[in-house]
C-alpha cells in the first residue's frame, strides 16, 4: 500500500496503518540520523521523537512533497536542535583542516603511532571507521546532502526540499562534501 | 582553466558523474573536461568516493532494537490517539482558525508580500556590498537576481546583449553565491570572454533559457 493511503488510514484512526509507515521508514531514518549524530542512544531518541511528531502533525501534511521528504525534514529539524544543543562541529569552513579531528579519527580507527595501521586500506574495518568519522566531521548541511544522496538514495530534488535549499545548491554542497572528504583522505594517506 | 569557470560546471559535473545528462547536455561538460585537469580529477573523485561510501554498511543495532522501538512508538501513538486522533487535531486546528483570524492572517501575508516585492524592486546599484557576498550557494535570492540578469540582457530569451547599459551594474551587484567566490569577482572573466556553452550553463542554472 502506498504512503498516501496509509496516511489517510492513520488520519481516519487506523493506527495499524501508521505502524506500517513506521516499519517502512524506521531503518533508513535511523541510518540518516545516526550518520549525523553518531550516538546510538541519541539516534534512537531522535527517530522515536520524529515518528511521534509526524503522527501528531499528520493532519497538517499537505502532500506538497513526498511523505518520505516530509519525514526527513522533521528528523533533520531534530538533528539541528540536537546540534544546537551541543554547539559543535558547526563552523568548519571549506579550507579549514581538521587536524585534531583527523588525529582522533586515526586513533579511533586503530592507527598506530599516528600512522595508518597496516589493515587500514580501503574495505578494512579501520578504513570504514575512518570514513564514518570523517563524514561526521563534515558541516551539517554537506553531511545531510551526502548522507541523503548516498545512503538514503534520495534524488537531489527531494534532498533540496528536505533541507530547504535549491536543487543546485544541494548539488554544490554534495560536490563540496565529496571533494573535502577526498582532501582529508589524501592528508591521511600522506 | 580558471577555477572560476569550473564553478559553473559543478552541478553539471555531479549530474555527469551519476550519468544523468543527455548526450546534448554532456557535450559542453566534456569539452570543459578535455581542457581542465582539475575538473577531470574532481569527476574521478565524484565517482570513486560515493562508490567507496556505498560499501559502508547501514548501522544496524539489531532486530530486538527495531522491534522494541516500534513498540515504543506504537505505545506513544496509542496514547496520543486516545487523547486526539490526527484528524480530530486537524479539525480542531481548522475550527480554531476562524474567520477573524483568517482575515488577520491574510492581511499579514499581503503586507509581507508587498514588502518583499518592494525590496525586490530596489535598484541594484543601491544594494550594499554585503548583498553581493551572500555566502549561500545559489540560494533563492541569487537565483532570482541571476534570472533578472538574464532577463535584462536577453529579455526575449534570445542572444544576450553585452552592450546593455546596465550590464556593469548587474555584474558588480550579482550575488553569484557559489558561482563567484567574492564581491570583487577575482579571476572572473569579462562576459564577452565567456563561451556560449558557459552562458548556456548559467542560463540553465537560472531557468532563463535552455
Structure description:
The complex is a heterodimer of chains A (190) and B (210). Chain A is mostly helical and 190 residues long. Chain A has two domains: 3-86, Rna Polymerase Sigma Factor, Chain: A (Orthogonal Bundle); 99-189, Arc Repressor Mutant, subunit A, CATH 1.10.10. Chain A has nine helices and no strands. In chain A, helix 1 packs across helix 2, helix 5 packs antiparallel against helix 6 (125-136) and helix 8 crosses helix 9 (167-189). Residues 89-97 and 108-118 of chain A have low confidence and may be disordered. Chain B has 210 residues and is mainly α. Chain B folds into three domains: 3-53; 63-120; 134-206, no CATH class.
- The SSE order of chain A reads HHHHHHHHH
Give the largest interface: A-B, 53 and 48 residues
The gross shape of chain A turns out to be: elongated
Helix content of chain A: over 70%
Average pLDDT confidence of chain A is 81
Unreliable spans of chain B are: 91-100, 122-139, 174-188
CATH T-level topology of the largest domain in chain A:
Arc Repressor Mutant, subunit A
Biggest sheet details of chain B:
none
Shape of chain B: elongated
Count of beta strands of chain A? 0
| Count of helical stretches of chain A | 9
Number of helices of chain B: 11
The CATH homologous superfamily name of the largest domain in chain A equals Winged helix-like DNA-binding domain superfamily/Winged helix DNA-binding domain
**How many structural domains in the coordinates of chain B?**
3
Strand content of chain B: under 5%
This entry's quaternary arrangement is heterodimer
CATH architecture of the largest domain in chain A: Orthogonal Bundle
**CATH C-level label of the largest domain in chain A:** Mainly Alpha
- Any idea what the radius of gyration of chain B is? 25 Å
Amino acid at each position: 500500500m502506498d504512503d498516501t493511503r496509509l496516511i489517510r488510514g492513520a488520519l481516519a484512526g487506523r493506527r495499524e496503518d501508521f505502524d506500517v509507515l513506521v516499519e517502512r521508514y524506521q531503518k533508513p531514518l535511523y541510518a540518516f540520523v545516526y550518520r549525523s549524530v553518531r550516538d546510538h542512544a541519541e539516534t534512537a531518541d531522535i527517530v522515536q521523537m520524529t515518528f511521534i511528531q509526524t503522527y501528531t502533525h499528520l493532519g497538517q501534511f499537505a502532500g506538497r512533497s513526498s511523505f518520505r521528504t516530509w519525514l526527513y525534514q522533521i528528523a533533520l529539524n531534530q538533528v539541528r536542535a540536537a546540534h544546537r544543543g551541543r554547539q559543535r562541529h558547526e563552523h568548519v569552513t571549506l579550507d579549514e583542516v581538521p587536524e585534531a579531528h583527523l588525529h582522533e579519527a586515526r586513533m579511533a580507527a586503530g592507527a598506530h603511532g599516528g600512522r595508518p595501521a597496516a589493515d587500514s586500506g580501503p574495505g578494512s574495518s579501520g578504513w570504514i571507521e575512518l570514513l564514518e568519522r570523517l563524514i561526521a566531521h563534515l558541516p551539517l548541511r554537506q553531511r545531510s546532502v551526502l548522507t541523503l544522496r548516498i545512503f538514503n538514495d534520495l534524488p537531489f530534488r527531494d534532498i533540496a526540499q528536505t533541507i530547504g535549499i535549491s536543487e543546485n545548491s544541494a548539488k554544490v554542497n554534495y560536490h563540496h562534501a565529496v571533494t573535502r572528504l577526498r582532501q582529508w583522505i589524501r592528508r591521511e594517506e600522506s | 582553466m580558471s577555477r572560476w569557470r569550473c564553478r559553473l560546471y559543478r552541478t553539471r559535473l555531479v549530474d555527469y558523474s551519476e550519468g544523468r545528462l543527455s548526450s546534448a547536455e554532456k557535450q559542453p561538460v566534456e569539452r570543459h573536461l578535455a581542457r581542465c585537469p582539475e575538473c577531470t580529477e574532481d569527476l574521478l573523485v565524484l565517482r570513486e568516493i560515493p562508490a567507496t561510501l556505498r560499501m559502508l554498511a547501514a548501522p544496524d543495532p539489531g532486530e530486538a532494537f527495531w522491534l522494541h522501538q516500534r513498540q515504543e512508538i506504537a505505545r506513544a501513538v496509542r496514547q496520543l490517539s486516545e487523547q486526539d486522533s490526527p484528524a480530530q487535531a486537524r479539525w480542531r486546528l481548522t475550527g480554531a482558525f476562524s474567520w477573524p483570524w483568517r482575515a488577520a492572517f491574510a492581511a499579514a501575508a499581503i503586507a509581507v508580500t508587498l514588502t518583499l516585492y518592494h525590496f525586490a524592486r530596489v535598484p541594484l546599484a543601491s544594494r550594499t556590498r554585503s548583498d553581493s557576498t551572500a555566502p549561500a550557494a545559489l540560494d533563492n535570492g541569487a537565483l532570482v537576481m541571476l534570472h533578472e540578469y538574464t532577463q535584462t540582457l536577453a529579455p526575449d530569451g534570445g542572444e544576450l546583449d553585452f552592450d546593455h547599459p546596465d550590464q556593469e551594474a548587474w555584474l558588480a551587484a550579482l550575488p553569484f553565491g557559489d558561482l563567484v567566490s567574492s564581491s570583487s569577482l577575482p579571476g572572473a572573466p569579462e562576459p564577452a570572454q565567456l563561451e556560449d556553452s558557459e552562458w548556456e550553463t548559467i542560463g540553465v542554472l537560472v531557468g532563463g533559457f535552455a
